[in-house]
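Our consortium's second objective concerns turning raw sequence data into structural hypotheses that experimental partners can test. To show how far this objective has progressed, the report includes one record in full. It was chosen at random from the queue rather than selected for favorable results. The single chain below, 295 residues long, was entered without modification.
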Amino acid sequence: TQPASETAAWRVTLENGTALEADALILATPAFVSGDLLANVRQDLANELRAIPYVSTATVSLAYRESDLPRPLDGYGYVIPRREGRKALACTWTSTKFPHRAPEGKVLLRVFVGRAGQEADLPWEEDGLLEIAREEVRLTLGITAEPLLSRVYRWEKAMPQYNLGHLEQMKRIEEALELLPGLALAGNGYMGIGLPDCIHSGELAAERIFDYISNSLCIAFSSFCVNREEIGACVTMSEPHQQIVTSRLSSNSSDSNSVFSVMDLVYHLSQNNHFQEVYEHLQIHQTLPTSPNPV
């Protein structure tokens, strides 16, 4: 794939043929999908991502009258161990955890179906999953009444499995990502499947990309503005911003302080929407990969 511009580090081609180019990329797709997208970028990374196993799951929500329950819902639910041999995985007492989810006098339950190694033994049509859920609440909670309403939701290959060796696998993925500093991964396939874990994963990915772009800007500024006497020649920005550049850089004598002052300058420019001006006049693309990674 040929670059459409000299500044692009990544090119993402959509199903309709549209190509999106960017200096950095976050993939928040399932690990196996990210592996497919990166197959022509780094095969070793793609293989590691594809090797993270996923299972399909389903949830079945059941609503009842509170009077239909032979016992009070004095908890938040339960998990069913594999040794029980049940087809259901767990049951959450949704209206106990979140009272607003059901009107007064009614209760809402949610049965989880789908366990690693069990997928082939389960019916995945709606009627079959509903029957599994009703059987579970009958066996465990003694509920025999017809539900007031039911909803079935299927999630294909949605639950990653952290099998033995997952942490070692994550270490290899991180090592491969170090060679692609403009790339970050986010999602439930890596270091946690819960909502807080996914949020944290997204935050870490954003921080990684922010640091990468910030460092690239700092390198660009410092490499083009080392000679403070020629600052006006290499920065052909508007007069007020030339003065900022000159004052920020000439006030420091060491390279480390210069980089720090450049970061301060980048922040100022970002507040005033002058990044395009920086890109045009400092040719930042010289610090970035000259050929985009096609995805």
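The partners drew two points from this record. The mean pLDDT is 79. Residues 195-224 form the longest helix (30 residues). Both points have been shared with the crystallography group to help prioritize constructs.
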